[in-house]
Write a structure and sequence with these properties.
alpha+beta, 245 residues, 2 domains, 5 helices, 10-stranded mixed sheet, Alpha-Beta Plaits
Length: 245
């Protein structure tokens, strides 16, 4: 009988074509599976809590896999696994879980954070954030974000080229926090549509750039029309922070 294990994984997504396995390109899933197969010496397929797009990072991605072998010394296993993985992927934690646990289907909420370095001169440490020179007003941003709370059709912020018919999400939290020159925009929802967070952030920047009333966010949300929203912003600043079960 096989045993199910839960992993907590962090990664810098810059050099990967997203988290989900795709043919002929490097993804987070393919690298994890290759390393696990090498270590466990059997064919391993992992299930992730959800997909992250090309270039998006994770501080707390959750995955599970089944294998025939019992992993006795989990500390030794983690050290060996991380020795095989590339330096921009790290498995932080492993535990045995029941077969009822499913990394994707058992998840209740997901927490993403988009980070913006809001300063006039770039820093050499801005590699994994969005560098934006024009002043951003966190109070106006929070007003705009307040219109996204609750259960809504988020079609206006959904990538037009996705085949997934889902459009309704329950947004539990949407807030902006400034820490000096760093702005962090947090989103907690039951699910996120393809490129949804990056499009919302692009819309926030559009509202700020054009000095529009923050209520413009509600107008765009209610329209359900993608063309009314802002640009889909760079993935550089986006990180999956937590998956809540």
């Amino acid at each position: 009988m096989s045993t199910r294990y839960k992993l907590i994984v962090e990664y810098v997504g810059t050099d990967y074509f997203g988290s989900q396995r795709q043919p002929k390109v490097d993804t987070i899933q393919s690298k994890l599976e290759e390393a696990l197969c090498t270590l466990i010496k059997q064919n391993i397929r992992i299930i992730l809590s959800g997909r992250t797009d090309k270039g998006v990072h994770a501080a707390f991605q959750v995955a599970h896999f089944d294998c025939d072998n019992n992993i006795i010394d989990k500390g030794c296993f983690l050290r060996s696994l991380n020795g095989i993985l590339p330096n921009d992927i790290c498995v932080k934690y492993i535990e045995e879980v029941s077969k009822d646990f499913h990394a994707q289907k058992s998840a209740k909420k997901r927490h993403y954070c988009y980070t913006i370095a809001n300063r006039k001169i770039r820093s050499v440490f801005d590699k994994h954030v969005l560098f934006y020179q024009k002043p951003l007003n966190e109070n106006r941003i929070n007003q705009a974000l307040s219109y996204l709370l609750g259960l809504h059709d988020f079609s206006a912020f959904k990538a037009s080229n996705t085949q997934n018919p889902a459009k309704v999400c329950n947004m539990y939290e949407a807030k902006c926090v400034r820490e000096g020159e760093i702005i962090k925009i947090h989103f907690v929802a039951d699910r996120f549509l393809y490129k949804m967070v990056r499009t919302i952030v692009g819309t926030l920047i559009m509202i700020e750039q054009n000095s529009l009333d923050p209520s413009k966010m509600k107008e765009i949300l209610d329209s359900k029309i993608r063309q009314n929203a802002g640009k889909t912003i760079s993935p550089d600043g986006l990180t999956l922070v937590e998956v809540i079960y």
